[in-house]
Design a protein that fits this description.
Distance between the termini: 67 Å
CATH architecture: Up-down Bundle
CATH class: Mainly Alpha
Order of helices and strands: HHHHHEEHHHEEH
Oligomer: single chain
Number of domains: 1
Strand order of the largest sheet: 1-2
Number of helices: 9
Shape: elongated
Radius of gyration: 23 Å
Strand content: under 5%
Length: 318
């Protein structure tokens, strides 16, 4: 009798946690839609009309992955599924969410490559770093998912897809390692970005430099903090609750990375307009650094940033 009561109590607790997780998933989907509606005009202006580039491709992939991830998450949260179908839906949701983070992180790696001045050595390192980190994360996620099982319930429409961990500790350890690896990778890339930024651009007074560096700092600090939070939540939080911040990290990565590009391109366009209004001649390979007050443009051209991150108007285009 006591065993049945404990199982019933566990079922009720799991149902409450599952409902909380479902509410978070819906809230994050609404947040993505709001962010899209707020920035779609900038996307049309600075992305759709820009020249084709790898940055543009990664932006669009990161931006629209939620069209796949969102329906899968809703399917997992609210559909009447068998235990096997729950595992399939959950696995697809996890892998699609990790893929969304992959595209967002790719933008940051391209950012570091740009700020390095398109160094071939740095390109090789970044490709190795990015590939190794992503392969490790997908492998750890697959191992974690292999330990997750879902129970059959007598009321599947009301209590659907409740997890039952066969190897609870091992599954959590693998999932925690995914976020720990993300945090470590973000710290390394952040330090590389800071080194190049201070070494190459500390004497450049352009507002673009300020935005480029400031947004990078905000992104890395926020995402590293969330990764560390996720790492500890997966170790110590209650079942199901430990997954809440995982989706939040994916959404935060997507919003911050895409807004960084839009804001930088908008600032780039503003500098171009200001420069043109002063009647300054266009830049050429042989021209001396042009200055507008404290704004100097040549360091950006030499850095490689002009070919990767700007507005697509011939100045800093992508």
């Amino acid at each position: 009798m006591d065993r049945l009561l404990r199982q019933f109590a566990t079922l009720i607790q799991g149902a409450h946690h599952k409902r909380a997780l479902d509410s978070v998933q819906v809230s994050l989907l609404v947040l993505l839609i709001i962010d899209y509606l707020q920035t779609v005009n900038l996307e049309v202006k600075y992305i759709w009309k820009a020249q084709r580039s790898f940055v543009r491709t990664m932006f669009l992939l990161a931006r629209y992955t939620f069209l796949v991830t969102g329906p899968i998450s809703i399917w997992f949260s609210f559909a009447k599924l068998s235990a096997k179908a729950c595992h399939t839906a959950f696995s697809l949701a996890c892998f699609s969410t990790l893929t969304m983070v992959l595209f967002a992180e790719a933008i940051l790696f391209i950012r570091v490559y740009a700020i390095s001045g398109r160094s071939k050595f740095m390109l090789g390192y970044l490709i190795f770093h990015f590939t190794a980190a992503q392969v490790a994360k997908y492998t750890l996620l697959a191992k974690s998912l292999s330990t997750v099982k879902f129970m059959e319930t007598v009321v599947p429409r009301a209590l659907n897809c409740l997890p039952e961990m066969e190897d609870f500790g091992g599954g959590r350890a693998y999932m925690s390692a995914v976020f720990g690896l993300s945090a470590a990778s973000e710290v390394v890339i952040f330090l590389i970005m800071c080194w190049f930024a201070l070494r190459k651009f500390r004497d450049c007074g352009s507002d673009l430099y300020t935005i480029f560096f400031r947004d990078g700092v905000v992104y890395f600090v926020c995402l590293t903090a969330i990764s560390i939070t996720n790492m500890f939540m997966n170790l110590f939080a209650a079942t199901i609750i430990n997954l809440m911040f995982a989706s939040f990290q994916a959404v935060a990565s997507l919003i911050l990375s895409t807004r960084m590009i839009l804001q930088l391109r908008q600032a780039s366009q503003m500098e171009v307009v200001i420069k043109g209004s002063k009647g300054l001649p266009p830049r050429s390979e042989e021209s001396a650094p042009q200055s507008l007050g404290s704004m100097r443009f040549m360091p950006w051209r030499k850095s490689g940033l002009d070919e990767s991150w700007g507005s697509g108007s011939g100045q800093l285009h992508a």
